[in-house]
Amino acid sequence: MKAIVCEGLGDARSPLGTGCLALKELPEPKLPDGHVRVQVAAASLNFPDALQIKGGYQDKPKLPFIPGSEVSGVVTEVASGVKSLRVGDKVCAVRQTGAFAEQAVVPAPAAWRVPEGLALEDAAAIPIVYGTADVSLRHRAQLKPGQTVLVLGAAGGVGVAALQLAKLAGARVVAVAGGAAKADFLRGQGADAVVDSEAAAAAKTPLHKAIKQAAPKGVDVVFDPVGGSQLFEALKCVAWGAQYLVIGFASGDIPKVPANLLLVKNTTMHGVFWGSYMMHQPRVLADSMRQVLEWFGQGKLRVEVFARFPLERVTEAFQVILDRRVRGKVLLTMAPRARL
């Protein structure tokens, strides 16, 4: 099978075969008990994939490894002990690494049937971002109708998922992103208010003041995949008793949280690492994925795919993500085409 292999840590945008990523022909992976083999239709790129290739993520697989953690495709083989899936099932699935390949072997509990009416390629974009957003908003923040949710980095994959799920829950959404194109995109996604961080900076308006203009009574929930200085700006905008969801650090800066600000507003801060639920609270994750996929089947959620690249153009796909141009998700497909 063809696969992208990380042979050395570095910039995921570097050309293939220059010491970081390479396209290789590999033997098909073994199929342990309790697993299924998936013929991959598409793999989803996430910002942590680039961090992992660079050596800057908390999970550090031993070199060499196949990057990627999210796929969609068709089950072609089922190992002993698997009763939930059959050969021929269309699934989306996750694993720690190994997604950027024509085949993926995944634990059966980490594969979910794709509902009718949802394009199989697009389903690769669902588990991590929609799973993270749903567990964060419904399970951790206990989001209620009528509350105000502030979504930072709202034009990225997980930000769009949070926006859609918050609106589905009956919340008011204030979305933050940089640039007019992203701002227009978020309005089209149904955000109640959009804060263009680039426009605010150009006008010398502190970000927290721009957010307060959109939410003068404060925000009840903050969904933050960005970190850095935006965390401090967002904390200045919370209402009393707010829930702050720490999702990631796309800014590249891990901030030190001023505990006094949490105390003054009785703010609860949650760290949300969706993948760890598979080990510690698998039922929560399973129930969340069941609900998310049900909503997709009902047409209440929709995948926003910004670009599709064939496997051999993976470095171009990472270029789009790391240049902050993405509005939605980027997919690697196993068919020889690219669409922007």
TrEMBL record:
Gene3D superfamilies: Medium-chain alcohol dehydrogenases, catalytic domain, NAD(P)-binding Rossmann-like Domain. Coiled coil: none annotated. InterPro entries: ADH-like_C, ADH-like_N, ER, GroES-like_sf, NAD(P)-bd_dom_sf, Quin_OxRdtase/zeta-crystal_CS, Zn-ADH-like_protein. Residues 17-332 form the Enoyl reductase (ER) domain. One of its GO terms (molecular function) is oxidoreductase activity. It holds the Pfam family ADH_N. This is Enoyl reductase (ER) domain-containing protein. It comes from Chlamydomonas reinhardtii.
